[in-house]
Design goal:
alpha/beta, globular, binds flavin mononucleotide
């Protein structure tokens, strides 16, 4: 099995790097293949911009999807993007490893999505969701949070992390991935003092043990449910009676709740 970890963290001594190293050890020990795209180490440029496109379908107006599709067809995508796509299509399982920053993913990872999920290459109007290019592959978010478990639950002051992660999970579903339940590690506070260092070390050790178990059990991991093709009407709205898997897509009666 081929596993790709896309890592978005600037500090090699961080929790996120430690989790990535632990995951790599487990994968290597069972003779699976692993690649790590360490976006900061690669100096990955996250801003989608006209300068990345060697050829232009329209030199007078920079329409991102037009230029992505044109350059994909001409095999002239930027080399860093081409490499990331190659990694994605190599992998059976893609793990996005990142800290929650301002209730979302770090900008470098969001920009990785903007640039690497290329229109015409990884999705199109006819190739998305259940007909997506990445059908048959699995993807999962592995996220660390500063807030405590209670504060990021369904009624927590930090907002429900599982809702916060919905857009990223839906983007993966859009490409056709089978999306696994996210791995959420809460209570990884930054700004700790020297006195707190030993307890942080203990927490890191425990978390790494859990993480190794999680990686080892990925084959049995639960998947997220999304609506099926038949659940949509001709205007691409949820049909009455279709199941609701998430508050982001719901029947009107549930809006007032
Ligand atoms: C810019 C920034 C924004 C952050 N925003 C959040 C947040 O919205 N919610 C949260 O729980 N923690 C937040 N944190 C805390 C980080 O998620 C936490 O420090 C990190 O997950 C710890 O892992 P690390 O050691 O790998 O950095 C933020 C930290 C930074 C630096």
């Amino acid at each position: 099995m081929n596993i790709l970890i896309v890592l978005a963290h600037p500090e090699p001594q961080s929790f996120n790097h430690a989790l990535t190293a632990a995951a790599s050890d487990v994968v290597k020990a069972r003779d699976d293949e692993i690649r790590v795209s360490d976006l900061y180490a690669l100096g990955f440029t996250p801003d989608e911009h006209s300068r990345h496109f060697r050829q232009r379908a329209n030199p007078d107006l920079f329409d991102v999807q037009t230029e992505q599709r044109f350059n994909a067809a001409k095999a002239s995508l930027a080399p860093d993007v081409r490499q990331q796509i190659e990694n994605l299509l190599w992998a059976d399982i893609v793990i996005l490893q990142f800290p929650l920053w301002w209730f979302g993913m770090p900008a470098i990872l969001k920009g990785w999505m903007d640039r690497v999920f290329v229109y015409g290459e990884l999705y199109s109007g006819s190739r998305r969701f259940h007909t997506g290019v990445c059908r048959g592959r699995r993807a999962v978010l592995s996220v660390t949070l500063g807030s405590d478990v209670e504060a990021c639950g369904y009624n927590g002051q930090e907002g429900d992390t599982r809702l916060i992660l919905w857009p990223a999970n839906y983007a993966l579903h859009y490409l056709g991935f089978t999306v696994l339940e996210p791995r959420i590690v809460a209570g990884v506070r930054g700004g700790y003092s020297n006195e707190e260092a030993p307890s942080r070390r203990r927490f890191l050790d425990e978390t790494i043990r859990d993480h190794r178990r999680w990686i080892g059990g990925l084959d049995e991991a639960a998947t997220l449910a999304f609506n099926a093709p038949d659940d949509w009407d001709e205007r691409r709205r949820l049909k009455p009676g279709a199941p609701v898997y998430h508050p982001f897509i719901r029947h009107r009666a549930e809006q007032s709740g």
